[in-house]
Input
Amino acid sequence: MTTVLRSVLYMPGANDRALEKAKTIPCDGLILDLEDSVAPDAKPAAREAVCAAASSGEYGRRTVTIRVNSLGTEWHDADLAAAAKAGPDGIVVPKVNSAAEVLGLVEAMEKAGAPEHTKLWAMVETPEAIFNAREIAAASDRLAVIVMGTNDLVKELYAEHVPGRAPLMTSLSMALLADREPARRVRPPDADDPRGDLGAGLRRPAGLRRILFPAYCAVSRKRDSDYPAARPSSSRTNRAGAVSRYDASSSSPTSAQSTATGSGSRSTPSHPAPPR
Output
């Protein structure tokens, strides 16, 4: 598992070609998705394929996680149990709204036999979750990542994605403050126009940014090489990175509108933000 997450790539769990392609894309982490990218009738087969991939050991040093379906859905319990048994680096859970839900998820992971290295990544996607971010961040030592689900958050706020993300800055700041208090890590937010937003992302406080296209994984890694190396992993602080989504069915990148929020990882940069 990598200790620096500069780029985290979402891969659709129902697409065998995408799962294979992920072994060659130069990203630091993977989120093998069972939620938005998988049709309801394909979810059982996708669950089996994703868990087999996550436990295969064929993704090198990449951080490998599984995104399950959210609490309250008919697939959640089976997803969580299977993912726990597969033992990925993390289990990504959408729409976590409270510390009580974090504790319930951790208990369910332990009951299902999740190994110690399998951490919880909680997606924060609603106003309720933002107001509870401080309690969520401090709820459990097994919670390693807060994923900023800005696509869904924008919908909840009746807002729009705009350059600079002004409608989201209060929510992002509140989550970042909650995360930094217990010295944890916050994942970068979503972006609708990665090419236009890359430079702005590097200039934002904490360097938060998200990239939807796999080609930009390499761009992100090159940009990061211009700045000092991350602190040792013992500091529990990793560098902010890009998040990508890949559409293997068309052999081309796509900017899907699902909760690709997916806070690869609660990641804040250990280096100063680049000058404006």
Q: What stands out?
A: The chain is about 35% helix and 15% strand. Strands lie at 7-12, 29-33, 63-67, 90-93, 119-124, 143-148, 242-247, 252-253. The longest strand covers residues 7-12.
